[in-house]
Amino acid sequence: MQNLEWFDSLNKPYLSPPDWVFMPVWTILYAMIILSLFLFLKGGLYKGKRLPFFFFIVQILLNFSWSPVFFGLQNIFAAFLIIFLMYIFIILTIITFFKYSKISALLLIPYLIWVSFAAYLNFAYLVLN
Description:
Helices cover 75% and strands 0% of the residues. By secondary structure, the protein is an all-alpha fold.
């Protein structure tokens, strides 16, 4: 599904980390995301939690769609639109989770920071290629 030859042929942004960095970073971030969701859902998904849960689901679906669009479809522009929307929905998730669990909201901050960096990389790939 992922065409790494295509990716390797792209002009790389200046701050592009080595490929080996991504797996451990995403592993840690996904663990934090799951823990955040668990803490948020503790006590159930009652009416007031539906909107924050919706924001969470949207951002995670956007997250899961980015790689197939960037690597599979090789569409850097569409991937940038996805990451931009994901960034917005992560912020909405953090803001709305905070009301129910400060820890669950704070656990998403490193994710937001990494996605900010990923958005920079995505935009740089768009400009350079």
